[in-house]
Amino acid sequence: MTENEFKELADLLYPNVRDIDYYVNKYPPRQAIGEVTRLGPSPTGFLHIGQLYQSLAHRLLANRTNGIFYLRLEDTDSKREIDEAGAIAYEMLNYYGLTPDEGYRGKEQEIGDYGPYEQSKRLEIYHAFAHYLIKRGRAFPCFCKPKKDKEEIQKSRNEELEQSDELTLHDPCRNLTLEEIKTKIKANNPFALRLLSVGNSEHTHKFRDAIKGEKDLRENAKDDVLIKSNGVPVYSFAHIVDDTLMRSSIIVRGQEWYQSLPVHIELAMAFGFKPFKYAHTPNICILDENGNKRKISKRKDAFADVRFFIKKGYPVEAILEYLLTLLNSDFEIWRKNNPNKSIEEFPFEIKKIGVTNPLFDFLKLNDISKTIISKFSAEEVYKNLYTWSKIWNKENSKTIKENKQNLIDILSINRGGERPRKDIAYYSEILDLYKYVLPNFKPNYQFELGQVDKSKLIEFLVDYSDHLTQEKDNQTWFENLKNIACKYNFVDNKTYKQNPSIYSGNIADASKFVRIAITDRSDSPELYSIMKILGIIECKNRLNALISTLKNK
What does the H/E/C string look like for 17-61? Predict the structure, then answer.
């Protein structure tokens, strides 16, 4: 078609639109600002852990450069949209302390001068840019019947390969004349808008990704769909238009988009725009049942939903710190040298994001979380537990409130100092860990005696219960335990005085079964302090309960 025919076609397909200069002038370049970066979730599901991972990169990058992090809701797939999903995504970013500086804000009014920040409200803008592209001879209407699903698309590709050993890159509708198009439009035939590609897939050029480095990139040669038959743009088109007008300076996104980069570059050039800087982050993976890496799946993995970690009761600090170990290779060295600094002080750099897909490791996350919780005071841990329970564990919230002092007392044991105890990874496990300090505790007493003589053990426990008093300190308590244990041949007192290392044997057995009697656990914080919290009467009751169990065992 001629230049005049393309202009006529543009007016036919998208009449009464503004010139794109109107929008370019409406959204001028941002003044004296650092990197402008954005997250663009689709409200078709929950906020994915991978999106939180990227949001941390966005937030840190904006902070380090005195830039802007904004949120754009990419709500162009109405068939798959889930009610409130967009609002929940914004709420989750707030919860994790990654609140965007501007943009979409869920149920609150958006803020910023570059909106609207919901793509469903920007259709007139997209149509104006579509008109411009057609007028320049770089887009055309396609009247072909769309493929219904992935299976039909794959079948079509297989048929093409059987016939010619290559896939069709150029759409046949690109050769329609203006008159043929007019006829189809008059007949109300639906159409999608496609890019009229001028690329050559045999040609390559150098491209530098902020993470992957310099790569050889093939030119796009495919007439990709830009706007669907319902008038709504696909990601490629909306991305170029929106990030240009919203003045994004760098596009940080998952590496699954790297394969689409050629068409994005060609589309930007078709508009006459300078291509963006891109940073394609690796995908967080897990190992499948065969030991192979796979992406975290929304369908298969519950923890793909960032609310999983809130429901479990992980501190926000633990999740962000763990994600930062995946984002920047030198973060752990920095943390070792700066144990008490905020992650906001970490000199984050996009180029230090690794190129390989990291594995999500719950053991490492739990270790980080235990370290973080160990630095909180007992009062802080209790407050966080109670606050969390009012939303996520309502059935036990009353119990937590009514047993505040006992819980603070047990949380206080071995807390603080150079080597604080690290046994809590998330708040939802606290009641189970310390249920023995709660009223109406009923031990189950499932244990093995091993080499311990049952009759001797019963005699020891009876004697210990009979002579149990409230000792003034841990050392006095232990001396009393040792002396009574020695009477029952757990270990000879004379031998103990000559060789205290033998404590690791028989007296350890005595201590072990006192611990089991009191806590129904083989491990716990300092036993003397636990018994002090419970009091003499309750401790005697539990010792007698274990004696009864042993007699019936």
Answer: CCCHHHHHHHCCCCCCCCCEEEECCCCCCCCEHHHHHHHHHHHHH
Q: What is residue 485's predicted lDDT score, i.e. its pLDDT?
A: 85
Please report the pLDDT score of residue 506 as a whole number. 59
pLDDT number for residue 282: 95
- Assign residue 458 the CATH number of its domain: 1.10.10
Same domain, 229 and 128: yes
Name residues whose C-beta falls within 8 Å of residue 22's C-beta, 6 or more positions apart in sequence.
Answer: 128
On whether the CB atoms of residues 96 and 57 are closer than 8 A, the answer is: no
Which two three-digit tokens encode residue 494?
């004379």
pLDDT digits (tens, 9 = 90+) for 236-293: 999 999 999 999 999 999 999 999 999 999 999 999 998 899 999 999 999 988 889 9
In a domain, residue 521? The reply is: yes
CA dist 304 and 284 (Å) reads 10
Number of domains in the chain: 3
Closest C-alpha to 66, from 257, 249, 331, 206: 249
Query: Is 440 part of a structural domain of the chain?
Result: no
| Band (138; pLDDT cuts 50, 70, 90) | very high
Using CA atoms, how far residue 135 sits from 18, 23, 221, in Å, is 13, 17, 20
φ and ψ at 301, to 5 degrees? -115, 115
- For 206, the 3-state DSSP assignment is strand
Sign of CA dihedral 140, 146, 149, 150: negative
251 three-state secondary structure: strand
My answer on whether 382 and 464 are in the same domain is: no
Q: Judge contact between 495 and 502, C-beta under 8 A.
A: yes
Whether residues 173 and 262 share a domain: the answer is: yes
The torsion angles phi and psi of 18, rounded to 5 degrees, stand at -75, 160
Phi, psi of 53 (to 5 degrees): -60, -45
CA contacts within 13 A on the Cβ side of 381: 31
> Which residue has tokens 């230090």?
352
Q: Is residue 224 part of a domain?
A: yes
* Both tokens assigned to 147: 């493929």
pLDDT digits (tens, 9 = 90+) for 519-548: 999 899 999 999 999 999 999 999 999 999
The closest alpha carbon to 387, from 303, 475, 315, 460, belongs to 315
386, 476: one domain:
no
Is residue 312 one of the residues assigned to a domain? Answer: no
Average pLDDT across the chain, whole number = 91
Domain residues for 534? 454-551
Alpha-carbon gap, residue 209 to 265, rounded angstroms: 13
